[in-house]
UniProtKB/TrEMBL annotation:
Keywords: DNA-binding, Transcription, Transcription regulation
Organism superkingdom: Bacteria
Keyword Secreted attributed: no
Gene3D superfamilies reported in the protein's UniProt record: Homeodomain-like, Tetracycline Repressor, domain 2
Residue span, HTH tetR-type domain: 23-83
Stated name of the protein: TetR/AcrR family transcriptional regulator
DNA-binding region, residue range(s): 46-65
Disordered: annotated segments: 1-22
């Protein structure tokens, strides 16, 4: 990859005409990035390939996104704009199991866009920063699972480190499928959830005063 020009913000540029050409071009380009990334990984992702697939002049792509890092950063920003809501099954164990199931499904689909996007973030500081923001937002959204569990009396009535609990519950899925690259285990989402809930009930995630 050539030396990148000056970086651009990871946040999407505001549309001057909501629903107009600017929004359509962004949607076309980001759809093309998803497809190119899923098919060829980061190594096959080029500005020219994205422009061709999107049916957009490459000058437009360069002008708005500058480089591949800009495309990836905007793609992650767009993911954060999706109106996603954490599961609400009525129990912490059920919520974490449902969350892990969603994660597992996103990692095992072929080709896995989620895995390709994570891998690509290692090649671009701008994309890595955008991915960190996306993860921060998702974990913050999911903290309500712990808040509801506390309100239902499922956990000790003490200040709880919700972020650490969520990481402990979801980490086994990423470990098995992304790091170890093992075949998906249909029992893993629930088993990982149960382990985290048991640890939380025993006070493992209580914040120390």
């Amino acid at each position: 990859m050539t030396n990148p020009p000056a970086p651009v913000s990871a946040e999407p540029a505001p549309d001057r005409r909501p629903g107009g050409r600017t929004a359509r071009v962004r949607a076309q380009v980001l759809d093309a990035v998803r497809a190119e990334l899923a098919e060829g990984g980061h190594e096959g992702l080029t500005m020219e390939g994205v422009a061709t697939r999107a049916g957009v002049h490459r000058a437009t792509v360069y002008r708005r996104w500058r480089d591949v890092g800009g495309l990836l950063a905007d793609l992650m920003a767009a993911a954060g704009e999706i109106d996603w809501q954490p599961p609400d099954t009525g129990s912490l164990r059920g919520d974490l199991t449902a969350l892990n199931t969603e994660i597992q499904e996103s990692l095992v689909v072929e080709p896995s866009f989620a895995v390709a996007l994570m891998a690509a973030s290692f090649h671009s500081a701008q994309a890595a920063q955008a991915q960190t923001r996306l993860w921060e937002d998702r974990y913050a959204q999911c903290e309500i699972l712990v808040e509801r569990a506390l309100a239902r009396g499922e956990l000790p009535a003490v200040p709880t480190d919700a972020r650490s609990l969520l990481i402990a519950a979801t980490a086994p899925v990423y470990h098995q499928l992304v790091l170890m690259r093992t075949d998906p285990d249909p029992r893993l989402p629930e088993r990982a959830a149960e382990t985290a809930v048991s640890a939380a009930a025993a006070g493992a995630f209580a914040l120390r005063q």
